[in-house]
Design goal:
- The chain has 256 residues and is α/β, with parallel strands linked by helices.
- The protein has 2 domains: 64 residues, lambda repressor-like DNA-binding domains (434 Repressor (Amino-terminal Domain), Orthogonal Bundle); 180 residues, Trna Endonuclease, Chain: A, domain 1 (3-Layer(aba) Sandwich), CATH 3.40.1350.
- Helix content is 47%, strand content 20%.
- The chain is built from 12 helices and 6 strands.
- It has a 6-stranded mixed β-sheet.
- A hairpin with a 4-residue loop joins β2 and β3.
- α2 packs across α3.
- The longest helix is centred in the middle third of the chain and has 23 residues.
Length: 256
């Protein structure tokens, strides 16, 4: 049972699921993060969801192999590209960074920071957008709570600037969603990508808080532009037909 996905489908917070299962919100968060729990805890959660408990007795090695098969390789390639660029510029960064703010919990795909400037960059990579409202809702929660949690964890006081960016795959299926729901994305990510570009140019913003969306091709090479902004996406040609085409291109290039 994919507990996190089921909880999101029910639109329950960690605390709501915990109350229904007789467990703490912290216990639910730990289980969703992959920490092993007792059979009783899993049974309680299954009962809360009104589903039958499916017990997997596979070994850790077999389970790890199965997880590798389910890995989003295109998503991983996008994160690798971003991490390589940002680390090359000397920024500190973390991938798949967990955070919790009371009953809200989640993971940020990539965060980078500059302690001297007290600047934070948060990137959410999207290879598909099957549920726009869910994706934007998750992004809004991280935009609201991630910064203060990381500032406290890293002991930087308070961020002078926060740059939050959705980085979507440069594919025809993504471009179609962006064009179809343009007003929605304009409302959720109203800012131009200037702050995102500033990070890539090793000049993090000195102040301000922005939310933007860009479209990126992890296979861009030579003089090709690696990314474009939302305003340009309306008339842009797709670099990849869909997720499967991007994955095939990455494999052909030896990157997946």
């Amino acid at each position: 049972m994919a507990i996190h996905e089921e909880r999101v489908r029910h639109r329950w917070t960690l605390r709501e699921l915990g109350d229904r299962a007789g467990l703490s919100a912290a216990a639910i968060h730990a289980i969703e993060a992959g920490r092993a729990a007792s059979l009783d805890s899993y049974a309680r959660i299954a009962h809360a969801f009104a589903v039958q408990l499916d017990v997997n007795l596979a070994s850790d090695r077999s389970r790890a192999t199965a997880q590798r098969h389910d890995e989003d390789l295109v998503h991983a390639a996008m994160g690798e590209l971003e991490a390589r660029i940002l680390r090359g510029h000397g920024f500190e960064l973390a991938l798949d960074e967990p955070y919790q703010h009371f009953q809200f919990a989640g993971r940020a795909d990539l965060v980078a920071w500059d302690r001297q400037r007290r600047a934070l960059l948060h990137i959410e990579n999207k290879t598909r957008l099957p549920n726009v409202q869910e994706a934007l809702g998750s992004f809004a929660a991280k935009r609201a709570y991630l910064g203060p949690v990381l500032a406290k964890r890293l002991r930087v006081g308070q961020w002078r600037s926060e740059t939050h960016v959705i980085v979507a795959l440069w594919s025809a299926e993504i471009l179609h969603v962006l064009r179809l729901r343009r007003a929605t994305f304009d409302a959720a990510c109203p800012d131009p990508p200037d702050a995102f570009a500033a990070w890539r140019a090793v000049r993090p913003p000195s102040a301000g808080r922005t939310s933007a969306i860009v479209v990126l091709d992890p296979l861009a090479s030579g003089r090709q532009r690696a990314w474009i902004c939302l305003a340009e996406a309306g008339g842009a040609r797709a670099r990849h037909r869909d997720y499967a085409a991007a994955l095939a291109a990455l494999r052909a290039a030896g990157l997946a």
